[in-house]
Amino acid sequence: MNEQEKVNHGPILLAPPAPRRVIGLDAHPDTFTAIRLRGYTPFDAITEKTFHKVPLSQLEAWAKKHTSPEEEIVLEAGGNSFQIQRTLEGLGRNAKVLESGQIGKLKAAYANNDKISALRIAKAYLTGTAKVVWVPDPLTQERRDLWHAYRKSVKRATRARNSLQSYLSDHGARFKKKELTQGKEAEERIKQARSWSSMEWQVIEGLLLELRHTHQQRAHWRSLIALQVAQDEKLLALVRLCGVRDLVAFAVGAIVGDIGRFQSPKSLVNYVGLSPAFDDSGKSESEGGVGHHGRRDLRNILVEAAQSIMRSPTSALAKWGKKLLARTGQLSLVVAAVARRLTVAIWYLLMGRWTPLEEIDARLEQKLSSIITQIGKERLEKLNKSRQDFRQAMKEALKKKIYLLDRERLFTMPA
pTM of the predicted model, to two decimals? Predict the structure, then answer.
């Protein structure tokens, strides 16, 4: 447009974008509070409607009556937030879950209630910096629930053992932790350690009862995890990797979920938190280690797997790690590097980008035997399958899904 056209027609004015309509939802086990905002930014947003302490049982009726598919409904991650998101999504609503850590930092220390929380959630989303978390699909959610139950049982068993060990130590009987996990043998050792009074032995019996109960719970969840891995071809294929046993494979399936949401190996590495931190602020410029971002739970598991790999005498990845250790002399750095390469290998395997392998080696045979042992005789009987039948079924599944990494690729070493 030339100057004459500007004089004749005036400047071209673009219509401003329509203001966003965001509903912040603060959910509790029995009620929820929602606030609808309309605006472009958290500073000019206007509160249009407030719904205070609505019974959670009325969520569907409330959503149908007071919300529309064009509106964005946001809530903070926690408790029942994923279930609420799935319910709203099933009604055709645009619901999102925001990362709880970031939203929690915005909480006012001097005053807080449900209305303030709902408003805070909506305004945080309007800033454009709030992180939207992935809502697990039903299968991944079930696996996460099972994984959390197992981890809690491990903690309870550890606490029960420590309580027993502490009580015995206070009464002059010293035992190593391993000596207190052998059932009847441990009970006999404790009896012979010294002369116990009637009351003291009653306390010990109670602590032993608690310890046995926690071990039973742990064995129950452990059996279910092994069964899940044995019956899922993708999880079972992960066991082929050096350092990956059924627990690690299941944790990957439970925490990572749909591998398709990671566009590259690097994105999975970043999600786990195995990328080195980098700080270039002011005059300082440094590259730190890992451990300050990402999924700490999965990162710890993969680091343990990397430590196991480093103990392997034959693994190519272990040989690479040992060469790196000889150059750097920093074991923690090397373990993190091995864990990072293992994460990359997991991405390629789950994406199906490896070439098939037809042979099952002795090490994999041993892993399969361990999985069947963890499943347990009782559960195999319930499934009406023998140990040999289960082993054969896993072998057939692995022959479809076993992969050997292409040696020409540089993203990792063959395990």
Answer: 0.83
